[in-house]
Specification:
11 strands, four-stranded antiparallel beta sheet, 47% strand, globular
Length: 126
């Protein structure tokens, strides 16, 4: 059974940091682009950052450039999202997802991602 599991979310003060992890079971991530997406209450799901299967290509939403870093460890079948300088507007449920079609270019189009995790809550508040 193909499964993605996110972890690392929580409550953090503005300016703080969190590292999210996305672990796969039932399949290897080596052949997939992995994306991090988020959805705040009342808003559409949006792409945050995506990474190609090799890790050579990454993409970031303008709102997180310079603050978030995506990386992957294929040996551990895990992808990470390091989030620094967090802002209240980063508050959302964060999801990771896998895409075979985006494995080379890692574009963060929601419709291109086939397998999704259940999400982890990130709350940035003082």
């Amino acid at each position: 059974q193909l499964q993605l599991v996110e972890s690392g979310g929580g409550l953090v003060q503005p300016g703080g940091s969190l590292r999210l992890s996305c672990a796969a079971s039932g399949f290897t991530l080596n052949y997939y682009a992995i994306g991090w997406f988020r959805q705040a209450p009342g808003k559409e799901r949006e792409g945050v950052s995506c990474i190609s299967s090799s890790g050579a290509r990454t993409n970031y939403a303008d709102s997180v450039k310079g603050r978030f870093t995506i990386s992957r460890d294929n040996a551990k079948n895990t992808v990470y999202l390091q989030m620094n300088s967090l802002k209240p507007e980063d508050t959302a449920v964060y999801y990771c997802a896998a895409s075979g079609s985006q494995r080379l270019f890692a574009l963060c189009a929601v419709s291109s991602y086939d397998y999704w995790g259940q999400g982890t809550q990130v709350t940035v508040s003082s």
